[in-house]
Amino acid sequence: MKTYMITGGAGFIGSNYILYMMKKYKENIKIVNVDSLTYAGNLENLKEVEGFDNYEFLKVDICDKEAVLHIFEKYEIDRVIHFAAESHVDRSIRNPEVFVNTNVLGTLNLLNAAKLSWETEDGYLPDKKYVQVSTDEVYGSLEGEEGYFYETTPLDPHSPYSASKASADLLVKSYVDTFSFPANITRCSNNYGPFQFPEKLIPLMINNALAGKNLPVYGTGRNVRDWLYVEDHAKAIDLVAERGKIGEVYNIGGHNEKRNIEIVTIIIETLQEILPEWDDRRKHISPELITYVEDRKGHDFRYAIAPDKIKAELDWEPETPFEKGIRLTVEWYLENEDWMSRVTKGEYQKYYEEMYKI
User: Fold this and answer.
1) Quick one: fold of 2-192+227-255+302-319?
2) pLDDT tens across 188-240, in order?
3) Where do the coiled-coil regions begin and end (predicted)?
4) Every domain of the chain and the residues it spans
5) Which of 46, 126, 129, 197 makes a 20 to 30 Å CA pair with 298?
């Protein structure tokens, strides 16, 4: 049985990854979920597995060097899947220091602990792997309508968030190059799906539209993002962890480029289509809610990832067309409005305080 240390497993992508892995491998793996439970961590996302014998949650901050070392001493860790990160660009502009501490120093602590635990006189214990889950934002911005980010694209981050992630990626690369450390780096496009914190574009727009609030769109709304359904991302990470060539970077893209204003319009249309005739909220959900606001500082124009390498080497490609994924996502939020309400009111934090006495 392999033991997976999942950092940031109570967050959006991390919790979806855990749910996917537990469904796929069932009792054949053990998952140790390591999360400091900042505002973006929500253990309610993992109610489905919290009672399983092969799942364990540890409230640990990856910036705590001694606590991280203790995890490797206590468990025989085979895989580190490193999701934990401060990830909201606007927050990074307001407070860059938090992003550097978590995303850079936290990553360094994990690398050192894994290296110490796995290293032998002859190299490393067999079948160990560290996967650094990164972002396409480290590549900067594509200013035109053509072209894609490849694994060989030079790093050119434009925000404190993306700069901190690029720094973490380079630390991982340095450990591979200097110490032959068994690691991979993945860089994904924008994820969407269940359990996403409502500061992000898609859940924010769904929540605001249902409440009849303005739908704030930066600048002209013409900025382009590539969208990846979160379960497709989970499948890709699993493949990289098991079959990725040591030291390689793999881009994970969704082949779903959309302008931000297109996303907002699609959400409005999907809600109008899904909501029943008797639901009074249908009356106020319209394009009139769209409000253009001052553009974000250093706002990258376009991200577009070419996932050619992961397709060629690991036979992965996105399975969920955007039209299907966005409908599944809107339906999930409509079916889980209580979850959204608890998150927006901060009540979700009481859940883990009571459950874990923390």
Assistant:
1) Rossmann fold (3.40.50)
2) 999 999 999 888 899 999 999 999 999 999 888 888 889 999 999 999 999 99
3) none
4) 2-192+227-255+302-319
5) 197
